[in-house]
Amino acid sequence: xxxxxxxxxxxxxxxxxxxxxxxxxxxxxxxxxxxxxxxxxxxxxxxxxxxxxxxxxxxxxxxxxxxxxxxxxxxxxxxxxxxxxxxxxxxxxxxxxxxxxxxxxxxxxxxxxxxxxxxxxxxxxxxxxxxxxxxxxxxxxxxxxxxxxxxxxxxxxxxxxxxxxxxxxxxxxxxxxxxxxxxxxxxxxxxxxxxxxxxxxxxxxxxxxxxxxxxxxxxxxxxxxxxxxxxxxxxxxxxxxxxxxxxxxxxxxxxxxxxxxxxxxxxxxxxxxxxxxxxxxxxxxxxxxxxxxxxxxxxxxxxxxxxxxxxxxxxxxxxxxxxxxxxxxxxxxxxxxxxxxxxxxxxxxxxxxxxxxxxxxxxxxxxxxxxxxxxxxxxxxxxxxxxxxxxxxxxxxxxxxxxxxxxxxxxxxxxxxxxxxxxxxxxxxxxxxxxxxxxxxxxxxxxxxxxxxxxxxxxxxxxxxxxxxxxxxxxxxxxxxxxxxxxxxxxxxxxxxxxxxxxxxxxxxxxxxxxxxxxxxxxxxxxxxxxxxxxxxxxxxxxxxx
Length: 546
Ligand code: G1P
Ligand code: ZN
Fold this sequence. Notes:
Elements: E1 6-10, E2 24-27, H1 28-31, H2 36-47, E3 55-60, H3 66-79, E4 84-92, H4 95-104, E5 109-113, E6 125-131, H5 140-150, E7 155-159, E8 170-174, E9 177-182, H6 186-195, H7 198-206, E10 211-214, H8 220-232, E11 239-240, H9 261-268, E12 275-278, E13 287-290, E14 293-295, H10 297-307, E15 320-324, H11 330-338, E16 341-345, H12 353-357, E17 363-366, E18 370-373, H13 381-395, H14 399-410, E19 412-423, H15 425-442, E20 446-447, E21 450-457, E22 460-461, E23 468-469, E24 474-478, E25 483-488, E26 496-506, H16 516-519, H17 521-531, H18 533-537, E27 544-545
Parallel strand pairs: 3-4, 3-5, 4-9, 10-11, 10-12, 15-16, 15-17
Antiparallel strand pairs: 1-7, 2-6, 5-6, 8-9, 12-13, 13-14, 17-18, 19-26, 19-27, 20-21, 21-24, 22-23, 24-25, 25-26
Helix pairs in contact: 2-3, 2-5, 7-13, 10-11
The structure holds 1-O-phosphono-alpha-D-glucopyranose (G1P) and zinc ion (ZN).
């Protein structure tokens, strides 16, 4: 037997370890404070009833501090009696791949080290998230219990041992705990091959179809190279920026019109390939582009839902769909047409888990570049890209044609999100509080030519476990059925971010191809007026528009 000394280390609580929309996210410098990471990890272990003897998976998006945190967590897992940990080679695992591995091997759970789309590097962000045995993010009742524990914690356990070499595949031991260093791509790639028709996609590339997939120097690079180039046979130039770097080469690994600028510029140019896509830091987000067209995530969700029967895994139809509340209602129209249920949940993937587990929905998505299905319990960037490729291979028409066809059939939900980042926290709170106070007086009032029909604060009762989540965003509906939603981000690490979501439906054929910001002008002005954005925050325009 391999003996390793377990040390009990005294500690005191940090008061800021409440997980947000997606795990605990802080600046790297915060995570580097003595005991900070350890307190949170021990709080996770203390909260899980069956951690002793359990099997876990551990990995991250390769960002700065990933390698250090992994060693600490392995030593703590050993000291807490975990039987086995599967670790991605070099500490790498994308978020959807982690979910896939938990489900495939029936593991107790997983720890993901990532701050998703937030920048990395010594001055950037770090994060940690726990996923449960269904492969999905721990639901609120667990994250709240972890937080509660973190407020009381007075000791943690860790073994005294040298670091483990994570570069070689295979099995090793730390004390009594087994560590299996796994190929981060293999299981996930096999799952993708079961879902989609890789042969058809190969034929598409053989016919001269061109693609630019931008991994933004984040985790999906190795996955994209293996799947698109090695397995499907796409030319090597189809995947760019594929080396994961600890600081994402100084970039912001968020696939949207602002942060994936070079890809967007390429796709809008005369030299654009047929198809463009990108993913975020940890591989769960996706952005879809065609030649001179950007597909909004809300439209993408609706289009995938409408065409799902063309994909092998979904050929027998969908059980239902779900979208987060701020996501456009484009998918609702498709669900109605298909005769399936459409669920509206609060922001954050953790709310889809129970619906997927109860087999109430097959596909779900968020306006924030997140789409996924019941194949895992996370949103899945490369899955969405493969879905589009499979669709293009079946339809043999361009992205633009597919999008236009969709709008002609269902109408178009013009949609945009305006973010006001790094606001003073007190001012942001004041803005939301003032809106709440105003809610009941808004009905019947007119702003920028739009009359308010209904206004409320969104709360949600999970239809499966009946857990109620309140305070999930302010919604203002107008008489023409357009809508504005206001909420504060739960993932930021600096100040507060106000998100303003704008949506309006258009059915008239001649008005289907307007510029989005122009089409939403009234809603944009109404939002500024109702929330008094400039008066309260001092900002007269958003910092990011998607
Ligand atoms: C953001 C997105 C949300 C997504 C989350 C994690 O959260 O808005 O849809 O689930 O990131 O990727 P927020 O910062 O708005 O709380
Ligand atoms: Zn992410």
